[in-house]
Design brief:
By secondary structure, the protein is α+β, with helices and mostly antiparallel strands. The protein has helices at residues 11-22, 27-39, 41-46, 64-72, 74-85, and strands at residues 47-53, 56-61, 92-97. It has one domain (25-97): GMP Synthetase, Chain A, domain 3. It is elongated and about 60 Å long.
């Protein structure tokens, strides 16, 4: 009796599984991984998470106007990010221009 042979997997599937195991487990890395989806295309083009400490996420914005806008959207953005993370890890945004 011969063992059943599995069909070959695509390279993208194999690499996807591999990179998921190699990804850093830090909160910042997890936020950076879901930033584009959770923040939205326009925000992701103008701002990026650069640091996290004790639930405070620091976001670097391309201008002071974007920093002010994100400060106004803080609660909504935190809800979307925490939802994407699957747990409430973030409680404050610190938005910086530059």
């Amino acid at each position: 009796m011969s063992a059943a042979r599995r069909a070959p997997r695509t390279l993208s599937l194999a690499l996807g599984e591999l990179t998921a195991t190699l990804a850093p487990a830090s909160t910042l890395a997890r936020v950076q991984g879901c930033w584009g989806t959770a923040a939205g295309e326009a925000i992701a083009a103008a701002a990026a998470p650069v640091a996290e400490r004790g639930g405070v996420l620091t976001v670097r914005c391309e201008s002071a106007v974007w920093a002010a806008e994100l400060a106004l959207l803080e609660n909504d953005l935190l809800d979307r990010l925490n939802g994407a993370l699957g747990e409430r890890l973030l409680h404050k945004l610190r938005c910086r221009a530059g």
